Amino acid sequence: MRKDCSHFAAGIATVIGSAVLFFTPAPALAGSPRADHACHQRHGHARTCQTSAHGRRARSHAQPKVRPQKVATPRHRIQVRSTPAEVTGAAPSPSAQIAAALSAQCANTEITPEAGNLPVVRAAVLCLINRVRAEHGEAPLVTNPDLERAAEEHSQELVADDYFAHVSPSGLTPVRRIEATGYVPGPSFGYVLGENLAWGTLNLSTPQQIVQAWVASPGHLANILESQYKDTGIGITAAVPPSLADGEAGATYAQEFGVILG
Fold first, then answer.
1. What is the pTM of this model?
2. Of the candidates 70, 87, 76, 125, which has an alpha carbon nearest to the alpha carbon of residue 251?
3. Per-residue pLDDT tens for 51-82?
4. CA distances from 235 to 119, 131, 238 (A)
5. Measuring CA to CA, which residue among 199, 164, 202 is closest to residue 2?
């Protein structure tokens, strides 16, 4: 019987406007989040990949300020009218949203993705991601249909075209994929975008294992915890790129992050 050890590696890319800056991928790390027995049972293989993008379009108030490995854009001032009607119908405060995310019971976190259960797998990933954000004092993300479409299409393409990267063999970048969905309303709008990718086979393809792998990687965790992000979209395909799967069942994940700055 073959002895399998799961492996984990992260590639980090930052996209600023239309320029792509790639950093050397982190070396492979032996073992999974449960490394004490990963080499004694068939837990499969896993890999993750992360990228982020910052854009500025036309409006001067979207001018980014540079900080180490980040591009921060000034937050907009929020004007609040203190009329009774608006106060009554106001959205929950960030602290209330964080408290709700912390208390949420995330279901279906240990199921293996299959064609018939992908909606509940997406919900499990979102719940786990929002819990991680809440644990670090960040408000939960909200599913956006445009970002979800971009994530779904990319996860499917990774499997169909047998590759694992943010940029497609044809040169399509995460920014261009997301722009094609209409998420960025127009050239006068600034944005901050990010993408996390992962694939896993066997027991490493569950939402719990995928999110744990992302959290264990500084680059992926930075995307998850970026305070500017408001929206997200999660795509899952119940298969792995054939050249990586080694004939085993599994799943490929893509998560898009974004915020439109106005």
1. 0.72
2. 125
3. 666 654 322 222 222 223 322 222 322 223 33
4. 9, 19, 10
5. 202
